[in-house]
Amino acid sequence: MPKYAIFDTETTGLFLWRDEAGNPIPADAEGQPRLAHIGMILLDDNLIEERSIDLYVKPDGWKMSPGAQAVNGLTDEFLTENGFPIADVMGQYASVIDEGYVLVAFNSQFDTKMGRAELRRCGMDDRFERTPNICVMKASTDVCQIQRMRPGGGFKQPKLSEACAFFGIVNDAAHSAGGDARAALEVFRRLHALGALPEPQVHYAKNHPDQAAA
Fold this sequence. Notes:
By secondary structure, the protein is α/β, with parallel strands linked by helices. The protein has helices spanning 66-72, 76-82, 86-98, 108-121, 136-144, 160-167, 177-194; strands at residues 4-11, 35-43, 49-56, 102-105, 133-135.
């Protein structure tokens, strides 16, 4: 059984995934969101917690957007006082990947893209090919069975709060990276017990199976 790193990120906003022509926008392009807070919980191959990482990022030429601040409560002043240089934060993130942990997140497509973006900005290899991951949001979809609003729409991907409600998980620190990572860990454990976890994999761009997603 592999080792797992369950993680969550708080950022300055959301990604722009494609431009007006439908082309993918690179994760590290100008105007894309920046990492403000990362929480990681490391499990050994017996799913026993080894340690946790909880780091804020010191702003370096960027500011929290009002919309993101309204959700996560992070201010530029707090991050300046409590944050670490992005290179130090990403050094720890990269080490987790290099040590062979499988990354797990609730919406891993977003969080791993955030990791790729900041690794690139730091002049580091983005480790795309070496980052197999599991999305517990997608894995929860057929378990939670929340109907889409439109008729015949099937099940929608649950929000973290909806998955927590389904599994009876209390998240007292919602919208903090550490709190949401802890909640994602509990969802992960429930799915593991049900045998509902997919195999970890590297996710490629849909139309370019030989190329990394942006």
